[in-house]
Amino acid sequence: MASDAYVFDARLVDHRGVGARLALAPNDTLDSLHGLLREAFGWDDPHLYSFFLDGEFWADPASEYTSPDEIEEGQRSAVVALEELGLEPGQEIAYVFDFGDQWRVLLTVADLASVDEALPCIVERRGDPPPQYPDYDGEEIGIDE
Fold first, then answer.
1. Consecutive 10-residue averages of pLDDT for the chain (145 residues)
2. Which domain holds residue 99?
3. Reported pTM
């Protein structure tokens, strides 16, 4: 049975050809989208993250929704339903995962469409995401073997 879904195209910034297409139910949250992005790109948790609905990384704090466990006064939690955000097809959303390493993803709201898969889901993956933590041999990080 088909379900209405928000469909997002996600592009890993600075990594040409790496991306995913994601689908979530209207009552799923930005926090759910965060979990799906982690799965699509192979990232561990817990790390801080934020979504910027204006499509600009670290831009207008008024457009920011952030990790629910780290809310400071004046910030908005990512535990908000997608259907409450007024998202429009073509709208860009900036997402930052792991504030230290700053993995950046540019999301585009592709459509509100019917999807035949259980939601939330990864509809498509493109390219091979780089490892979250590069392997270093002992010499590079100052460990004597």
1. 87 96 96 96 89 93 87 84 95 95 95 88 95 67 50
2. 3-126
3. 0.87
